[in-house]
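Checklist before submission:
- one chain only
- standard amino acids only
- sequence pasted in full

Submission:
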Amino acid sequence: MSAEIATYVAKKNQKPVFICTHCEYSTVKWMGQCPGCGKWNTLEERILSSTPSRKIRSSIKPASITEKEKSDSITRLSSKMKEFDKLLGGGIVPGSVILLAGDPGVGKSTFLLALAKSGYRCLYVSGEESLSQVQDRAKRVGAMLPTVLFLHETSLETILAVIEKEKPDLVFIDSIQTVYSGEARGFAGSVSQIRDAAGMFLELAKRMNIPFVLTGHITKEGQIAGPRLLEHAVDVVLYFEHEKKGPYRFIRAIKNRFGATGEIAVFQMTSSGLQEIPPNKTLVNITESGGIGSILFPQMEGSRVLLHEIQALVTPTGFANGRRVGENIDLSRIHLIAAILEKYMSMRLSECDIFIRVRGGTPLKDPAADLALLLAMASSFLEKPIPAAVAAFGEVSLSGDIRPASETKERLKALLAYKIQKVFVGSKAEASPYPDQAIRVLQTLNEIPAALGS
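Returned file contents:
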């Protein structure tokens, strides 16, 4: 075959495709607006070969799942933070890739420096801050250590070369959206750039058995910026949340290949960095609870119990329809409990404004909060105060029945450690740590007025 014919065949097998740099929508013709995401001028032409070549390694053989590996146990790295190690399932697994996502200013970079204090040889790669900026924060949090190496770089190829040369114990990339590869299309932070950078970091982590911690930005919709593939590729996905206008920070495990999901670690942002909050410490002042419309609720966050205070204010409305205002709670839940109280207890809440405030750091999402929310609203409507240090939990059905909540024993055990004096529950757990006189079991809504008066 002549060279001209070979060139002609090669060009014929190549097909142009236009791919969106934002959502990776593909089409055979160029368009000004991407049909997938609605962005303008994001379609770029790429040449795809219709006959891709794939290398076949005949020496590879599958192994039996019953075979033992060279190492039966994995030696994890301790972060010297008990709550974070527990969140990961016992520590950082060598060769794992952890994605830490959060809003700007929540404290992701500060948390990386807290990890650097673990004593391991760490390489901190930042594409957002200079050495002097990181040094200033490191002095404040006590991370000025000779074991911490810093690299201000955004080039993917340079970062990979430095990692292979230095061979650190831990690698921090702050952030994945700032890394740029000259071999990939698009700008830094685009879908193609993030996908290629994450793929290279993942391959290097597995090959060199070095754990990586990547920080990621959060969009306005609350999603991690970049392709969804990023969350699927990494081993662990952590969301760094914060309390509005509060010092508390929460790291929640959304995905964890080496431990349980849904677990949470609580920290407090101080002038000297992040401080761990142990499980036996509450985020609300128990002595300030109680009164008209105020009650405590133990919310399950993974295996941890976080104590919340629910405050309710029910007052006659000055409008045709009552307003519903909630803080750290879904408004639909307020509507639901108000409808149950109006139907089965003849409380004309449709003619009232209802204001609900939840204190305790995290939003009120536990189904067992129905009973506590109902008692707080009924207390405010009937103007019957609730004593201090009183908690409640249980689910309320649409038929007006009060049903038991999940993990009752764990909640009662935590409330006993918090020295809660009285608890309203949907059912009593077996082998309850509480004395009988401290637990009041409620089964129907008709018992609510008498319970508030007790």
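Reviewer check: The CA atoms of residues 86 and 265 lie 8 Å apart.
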